[in-house]
Amino acid sequence: MPRRKRKGLSFYHRRKKISSSTVREIFSWLFGILVSVFIAFVLVYFVGMTTRVIGVSMEPTIDNGEKVYINRIAYLLSSPKVGDVVVFLPNGNENSHYYVKRVVAKPGDAVQIVGGRLYVNNVMEENTEVIFDKMADAGIAETPILLGRDEYFVLGDNRNNSEDSRAANIGPIEKKHILGEAWFHSNGTLEGTGFVK
Predict the structure, then answer these.
(1) How is 6-65 classified by DSSP, letter by letter?
(2) Tens digits of residue pLDDT in 91-123
(3) Contact 153/145 with Cβ under 8 angstroms?
(4) What are phi and psi of 94, to 5 degrees?
(5) Is residue 31 domain-resident?
(6) What is the CATH number of the domain that holds 139?
(7) What's the first-to-final CA gap in the chain, in angstroms?
(8) Hey, which residues are catalytic here?
């Protein structure tokens, strides 16, 4: 005689099996989220830093008070080039504000200012994109300066209103004190060797 099934409560539950495709999908979502967080961190830390220009030393290229975005990755694998606009702390002084200037000479170059004009390796600077005024004050570059290893000579584009490598308290800038390359500013982007508004 067949047994009759009892009606009533049953506490037996079938275990649900998680398929391998579901596990793969969960891991792919987790991996995607972790990669996104990592990329966001890298972008904010290395690329997303900003500073404001203080003073008129980079006019007309960058105006006083403009926000400048700093590419901190730029010089991890390469070095600043002549024409680059860099952001640095003078002598690594953490209590100073960030300076924004243009690189005019690189390590190994000889720099001198004669008759208000910049000479690098005894050749007068020529720049077809930006016309610079004659410099009234040569500062420490009145006599030739031979840049050492990892040293850069920087000047502001507004050369008669700029505290830069000509000043004895700043002098040549060591690469380790360069925070990064000024990537673009609030009113324009960087193209070629100068900012374009």
Answers:
(1) PPS-----PPPPPPHHHHHHHHHHHHHHHHHHHHHHHIIIII-EEEE--SSTTTTTS-TT
(2) 878 778 899 999 999 999 999 999 999 999 999
(3) yes
(4) -65, -20
(5) no
(6) 2.10.109.10
(7) 96
(8) 57, 101
The answer to whether the predicted template modeling score (pTM) of the entire model surpasses 0.90 is no
Counted domains in the chain: 1
- Amino acid identity of residue 23, one-letter, is V
Furthest C-alpha separation in the chain: 120
Collapse the DSSP code of 156 into the 3-class scheme (helix H, G, I; strand E, B; otherwise coil) and give the result.
coil
Task: Provide the mean pLDDT of the chain.
Answer: 83
Q: What is the distance between the alpha carbons of residues 102 and 57, in angstroms, rounded to a whole number?
A: 10
Q: How far is CA 73 from CA 52, 70, 77, in A?
A: 19, 9, 8
3-class DSSP assignment, residue 102: strand
> What's residue 40's pLDDT?
76
Give residue-wise pLDDT tens across range 143-178. Answer: 999 999 999 999 999 999 999 999 999 999 999 999
**Residue 2 structure tokens:** 């067949």
| CB distance 104 to 113 below 8 Å | no
In a domain, residue 124? The reply is yes
CA dihedral of 119, 122, 128, 129, whole degrees rounded to 10: -40
Residue 83 lies inside a defined structural domain of this protein: yes
- The domain of 73 spans 52-196
User: 2 in a domain, yes or no?
Assistant: no
